[in-house]
Each structure stands twice: as C-alpha cells, then as structure tokens.
Amino acid sequence: MSASRVYLSTIGRPLDPAEAAVPVLDRGFLFGDAVFETLRTAAGRPVAWEAHTTRLRRSAAGIGLDLPWSDDELRAFVDLTHGDTGNADSLVRIVVTRGVAPLMLDPRKALTPTLAVLAIPLELPDEAGYVRGLRARIVDVTRAPASALDPAFKTSNYLPNIQGLRQALAAGDDEAVLINPAGLVAEGATSNVFAVIGGVLFTPPISDGILPGITRAAVLKLAGDLAVPAHESSLHPFDLRAAEEVFLTSSVRGPVAVTTLDGFPVGDGAEGPLTNKLRNAYQAALPGL
C-alpha cells in the first residue's frame, strides 16, 4: 500500500496532505518567500542527502533565512514522513518558509520558519518510457538574471518556469527549455540540459544562469569515470536543435532522453547510446549517491 504524508513543524507529526494546512499569513503562501529541495529515496534512503541539505542551507542563507534544524533533525523528519507512507520509495519535497508575519512585504516580522516535508509515491518511467523519451520545446520565457535572483538559490518563486512549461504543454510537449537573457540555453523548467555534439557531452555552465543541479553534477562525474569527453560550455538554441542527442537531468527521474525538440526528432527519435550509457551508470550508482 502506498500513500502520501506531510510533516509540518507546526503540528509535529505526519498527516494526510488533505488534513495539513499552513496559515494564510505564512510568507511562503503570500510571497513565495521560501526555499525547497526535491529528492527521491532509493531502498528507503534519501539519495544525495548531503548535497541536498547543503544546497538547502545555501539557498536559505542566500535569502536571509535561518534554519533552526540540524541536518540530523531534517533527516529524522524525512525518515519519519517517508516511513509513515508505507511506500517502497518516495518523492520527497522539503519546504522551509520564512513563516507567519503581518501582511506586508517587510520580512523582519517573521520570527519562526515553517517546515513542511511532503512524501508521495515515487513514479518513474518504465524502461520503454526512458527509451521513448520526452518531447521538449525551447520557449521564449527567459530565466531570471542573477541580478534579480541568484539561480543557485532554489526558491519557491517558480512562475517563469511555470510560464515556460505552460507554453510547452500548450504545444503538446512534455518539458520546456528556458533561455537566459543573452539568448543562450539555460535549463529545463524542472531539469538541467545536456547535449551530445560530435560525440562530446555538453551542458551549460553555472555562469549562464542555471541551478547547479545535483544530478547534473553526478552525471558529469560519471562521464569522467567512463572517459566520456564532457564540457561545461554555453549552448545556443541552434546547437541543441542540431545535437545528436539531448537529455535532461533531475533528482527524481535521473537522466531522461529528449527525443523530440521543437516538434522535430532528435537523432533517430529514441534514446541515444550515450544517454543510455549514462542513464544506466547513474541508476547503478544511485544507492550509493
């Protein structure tokens, strides 16, 4: 039996999400004044836990939000919530808001952060789904510049990503690829982007305004271990359209092939050999990440 549960710091125990609530004056609800991490478990254990908590703390520090919980306490909340679901494995979302405050923009009145840990059944593509891949579209929504909001901070301000995804979905596609203000490829709405060009693996550098993805870093390390030539290098949209292979990475699904881009097949329209090689290597390494 599988289920969804949410732990709230204001309640202190896991609940059915339909029963859980935060006050309407919580700044996460009012302003998106919050940071979060999304991860998965493997054999019941959070994958890349240290990397996720490090990024959560970096994001919180970046918006001036103090986290009163230790990493061990956060892990205990995740284990408790996942364990209460009965799921073999879960998708886990950790959200920390600045907390409740008067209805004004000034954040100084918020004294106590709110923590929510949500665990839901983990749903992944089957082997045929990974081979079939995703339909992606390069949209005209730009990633916010670092001068507005540092892309290294994983915050709840996701409207540009949502707008880009809406545009892709309206065209019948599965995922959006956003560009940066310079017109270069940035990232997917919920993923990092890789391309295989001339047998070499490319992914946009952090300096192009992308989130430093945890799975992105793992794939780059695996590429090095497998002697796959890889470069962090700026990509133009036309580079992506001309690539032999394109794939996206995220903490939940790992590497997933893009087999259609802007309505045209990528390569032969199925998962490419290098994408397959890296996906299999990632899945084999997953329990130890």
Automatic annotation (TrEMBL):
This is branched-chain-amino-acid transaminase. It catalyses: L-leucine + 2-oxoglutarate = 4-methyl-2-oxopentanoate + L-glutamate; L-isoleucine + 2-oxoglutarate = (S)-3-methyl-2-oxopentanoate + L-glutamate; L-valine + 2-oxoglutarate = 3-methyl-2-oxobutanoate + L-glutamate. Its EC number is 2.6.1.42. GO terms for biological process: amino acid biosynthetic process; carboxylic acid biosynthetic process. Belongs to the class-IV pyridoxal-phosphate-dependent aminotransferase family. Pathway: Amino-acid biosynthesis; L-leucine biosynthesis; L-leucine from 3-methyl-2-oxobutanoate: step 4/4; Amino-acid biosynthesis; L-valine biosynthesis; L-valine from pyruvate: step 4/4; Amino-acid biosynthesis; L-isoleucine biosynthesis; L-isoleucine from 2-oxobutanoate: step 4/4. Its cofactor is pyridoxal 5'-phosphate.
